[in-house]
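call fold(seq) -> tokens
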Amino acid sequence: INISVFPPSNACIGRYILNMQITSCGHTYQRCLGDFYVLFNPWCADDPVYMDNQAHREEYVLNEHGILYEGVHKHITSRPWHFGQFEEGILDICLKILDMGASYHQGSDRDHCWRNDPVHVSMVVNHMISSHTTNSIMKIPETNDYLKGTKPFSWNGSVPILQQWYNGRCRPVRYGYCGSLASVMCTVMRCLGIPSRVVTNFRFPCSIENPLAISEIFDCTGKNLCGKDKLWRYHCWNESWMARRDLNQCCGDWQCLDPTPLETGRGSACSGPTWVRSIREGELDLDYDGHHMFSRVNSNYVGWLSQNNAKKTKFFCDAWPCGQHLITKSVGSEQFENITGAYKYELGMMKS
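ret:
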């Protein structure tokens, strides 16, 4: 007997068991024929992750080798990264991540109905990468003390990280940084069939009090008196391709997902998915965490002079320091592609 299975495009992803029941002469027999996996399908036009460009599918789904870009925007460095989404056992680990993160959706872990929606799947994966839960995949060191784990920049692939998490009873791997977190997420998403890529944003703002302004306070000698706000040299996050049915999108587009938990006014949180186009257009109420992602490419850099009477005087303001250079690996090439225009308009440019 030859059996063909054609799951619908809205089927929940995961592992299925195929049983056969035979009734003959009043007796019923059951036999397990095996199991199979259902994943998102970017080759299927009815799937919400459909990508119509074959070269893009080969790069963002099938390619196991990537490049991380670091440094500063005037001197960009690169290093290879092995995603390894097709390595043995990785698919089972990725499905285990969904199982462990099911409680992130209140009450939906029983029927798994959210597993046919790439938006909710991406939210669960994003939450599981490096949240403060006991089962998150990686931890970020609070200090520069790496004695209890591996130095964050020593990793060069996702497979050993995922295997260590799985074999260690789903305890967080120590330690990671934004590049490794985004790369591990890219591996999980590609493994589940969702086209994904790692993006680097140079000059990344990290402000707790005011997300749209990085403030530095100096005394009359030039000493920096404020250490809470930061302007990082670079920051990495993930982009995944999907149609946002919750936003009435009929076609796929890039969605921004940042698995690195950053401090906000409401505590530490991950961001996304956020439609990249909504960030450029400033439609902040349209999407998840739109205001957070908008501030990360549009913050002002403000310098204040603290006087003796505790009064502060603004003496410097740069309206264009953040998000000057956003890049990702080019399709079919080891060169980088500048995608800054997808996130923001050029300074002084009139919006069409």
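DSSP finds eight helices and 15 strands in the chain.
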